[in-house]
């Protein structure tokens, strides 16, 4: 048999007034946290800058996710502002600012992507030029090289001789003919 006093203690029902107070506290807490989170998101969005190592696509994707967390009313304008302010090239920056209101977000993104691709292609072309110059330099330097001619008068001599002379020498040796000496080559 359960005592009447114990029966009252086992009930977990809260009075209606307490439930309303708890709901109000939770609602107020959520509002405060949302406000602080939004301000923090604004700060993160404003401090976000485009890094040289990151592509435009990565930058824009990150900006779009940040702008959604900020709860701005005109998200596309904020994204456009951030893209324009994040441009590192002054020529592109001036072009985007000159277009102003006529320039839509998609066109701005396309201009940035085109600039990035052009920059990458120019870098590849410069690398190819450097490689070609190195190859030309090596080819010019290989025309002449140091070659151990022979012991001439008992002294080991190294001379800068042409590749053609070297081939003539090798042919001459292969025919087992007498070597005329380095003075006969020039």
UniProtKB/TrEMBL annotation:
Full protein name: Uncharacterized protein
Domain of life: Eukaryota
């Amino acid at each position: 048999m359960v005592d009447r006093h114990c029966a009252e203690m086992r009930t977990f029902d809260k009075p209606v007034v307490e439930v309303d107070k708890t709901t109000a506290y939770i609602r107020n807490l959520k509002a405060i946290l949302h406000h602080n989170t939004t301000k923090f998101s604004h700060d993160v969005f404003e401090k976000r800058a485009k890094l040289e190592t990151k592509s435009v696509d990565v930058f824009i994707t990150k900006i779009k996710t940040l702008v959604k967390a900020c709860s701005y009313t005109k998200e596309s304008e904020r994204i456009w502002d951030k893209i324009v302010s994040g441009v590192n090239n002054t020529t592109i920056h001036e072009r985007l600012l000159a277009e102003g209101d006529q320039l839509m977000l998609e066109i701005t993104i396309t201009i940035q992507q085109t600039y990035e691709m052009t920059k990458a292609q120019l870098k590849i072309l410069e690398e190819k030029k450097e490689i070609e110059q190195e190859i030309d330099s090596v080819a010019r330097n290989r025309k002449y090289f140091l070659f151990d001619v022979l012991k001439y008068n008992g002294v080991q001599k190294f001379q800068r001789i042409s590749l053609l002379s070297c081939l003539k020498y090798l042919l001459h040796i292969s025919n087992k003919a007498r070597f005329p000496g380095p003075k006969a080559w020039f």
